[in-house]
């Protein structure tokens, strides 16, 4: 709920909005005779704000000076960034508060479509550790489909809801503290569309949807994109809305140089600028002697230079003060201006609780599964930041292309209506992956992966996942994930795989053979999801093994046998990034017990666990990892043995050089990002070092245990759209096999 600051009155929300509406609509009578006389003598001033990306933040500086000069604004129109600044101001936010919001905003995060990784569904997080890379294709109508924009805009719209929070509950923009209209373009017809009703945040989002870079927004059956294409400086609309006099702020955007065209967003923005230039010229021709044109000289500040927001605001202030003589004629006396602004500025207070939270527009996804992801509950005060987190968490399930909400029921029970939009290119998806590894000494591995995922197979949200991988680990894998409760927490999951894994067999530092392990496996797990944090699985599994030595002496025997037993797996994942994390943790615990009663050739067991923790100090990150496993004194067969050696698992040694039934490993890794990559390519390039220690025991009979081994490495790494990449050199120390220097190249997760 919001309260007007005018004379400290404590009327209801409806009464306050009604008063603001009556006092601000064109031709409305003022509250007293003196104000009415002044209003009749003064022209109604409309503010028209152009688009221009980050350059449009100069509008904030313009508003600050207009406030200082007591120039009244009776209505606002805006396009793209002009609609964002103008809509926030019109909703009741004073310029000083608007400046604070702009300067403290994390623009890189706002334009990063993926929600924070800790809010993503745990089954989605699992894909991060595979060789998969972007993009995700939809399988639809016999072909492949892609999203309509590189960025869906979920984080953007969440930020806009914070900006426009005072306007929540007002669907007619003419009834805002300052009447407002945003401009968008119908991508189907090319028409200029006036957005003057609905959700202010959604109107902002539609007005700045750069085609190709940001997904279009559907409003009233129209598919809308950036308003700058059809009307980048809405002077005529300001006159229609209220204006006798127009103050127009033109953030002219000169064509970017090739060096500045570094992303899909900047390329698409360049196109919008070219398309919108003619409309700006046409609008400027309509300006008369009473109108005022403000054109801040923003120099080399580009449409993507959000890091220079403070400079843009300063330049906006300077450009407005330079026109003080032209603007002074519209200045109001202090008391009259204060009375006007008291009606226009809205003070934020706690919003009333809702009586119900419900979902609308779902055809494939079970709403009960989404309710379990909500922290907002009926009966508690509505908090926009909490709602934003809830919506991002729902978006993180991977089923939606956008999500919004509204509050309904002013005259009765209040309800929060959440409207997720299911992916138009779903519900079946295809992804590809590639992993490569080399130690530059003949130890090379590669894997190529294709993943096909079918979702929403029934009302409880069943999924069918199939993967085909060819390379060092060749397999065909399929699983059917079936929730058994309405909320989706409990599930059953039958699965099966057939394939072959190649492992090296070493004597000292030399690989003497390849051990080929063919398998056909089937299992049936039951389990539970721990929110977005983790997953528990337990169930029986049968594996037919066909293992033999290839290209080398028979160090390990050939065998055909069945191993059958029960497996348990528990995993937590709260890392902010799967690779090169800055904060968070993961933990994994697994165990297996083979039973001859189930048909197993052997009774044996093993347990394995690992933890991973990352913490950052500014740009510096320490990542600590530990793992260990044991066969608990049983005769675990060679095809289940643990392995150490290779990049960041004793980096100075060969991949998989040490094998056995019992192991322990620890690693401390430091890294720093030395170059930031555009979001489309990844997060950045890193320089780092690692210190590693490991111990392997109970290995091949007759061969000495390698004992405790130490290793260190220096590396350059990158977190890319194709997964992690490392180029490094390692040094290994072992009293048994000797010291060793090795280099490695790693791309993806082979």
Summarize this, please?
The protein has 750 residues and is of the alpha+beta class. It has 16 helices and 35 strands.
Description:
By secondary structure, this protein is α+β, with helices and mostly antiparallel strands. The strands form 6 sheets. The chain has a 16-stranded antiparallel barrel with strand order 18-19-20-21-22-23-24-25-26-27-28-31-32-33-34-35. Strands 2, 3, 7, 8, 10, 11, 12 and 13 form an 8-stranded mixed β-sheet that branches. The chain has a 3-stranded mixed β-sheet with strand order 15-17-16. Helix 8 (154-163) crosses helix 9 (200-207). The two termini are 54 Å apart.
Find the structural class using helix and strand composition: alpha+beta
Can you count the helices? Answer: 16
Unreliable segments of 5+ consecutive residues: 1-40
Estimated share of beta-strand residues: 35-45%
The main sheet comes to: 16 strands, antiparallel, barrel
Q: How is the secondary structure organized here?
A:
Elements (H helix, E strand, L loop, with lengths): L1 E3 L8 H12 L8 H9 L3 E5 L8 H11 L6 E5 L1 H10 L4 H10 L2 H4 L11 H5 L5 E9 L2 E3 L3 E3 L2 H10 L16 E7 L5 E4 L4 H8 L4 E3 L2 E3 L2 E5 L8 H7 L3 E5 L14 H21 L7 E3 L14 H13 L2 H5 L5 H11 L1 E3 L7 E4 L7 H5 L12 H12 L4 E9 L6 E8 L5 E11 L5 E11 L8 E9 L1 E11 L6 E18 L2 E21 L3 E17 L8 E15 L10 E11 L10 E13 L2 E11 L11 E3 L13 E3 L1 E15 L5 E16 L9 E14 L2 E12 L5 E8 L3
Question: What attributes does this structure have?
Answer:
single chain, 750 residues, alpha+beta, 16-stranded antiparallel beta barrel, 8-stranded mixed beta sheet, disordered N terminus
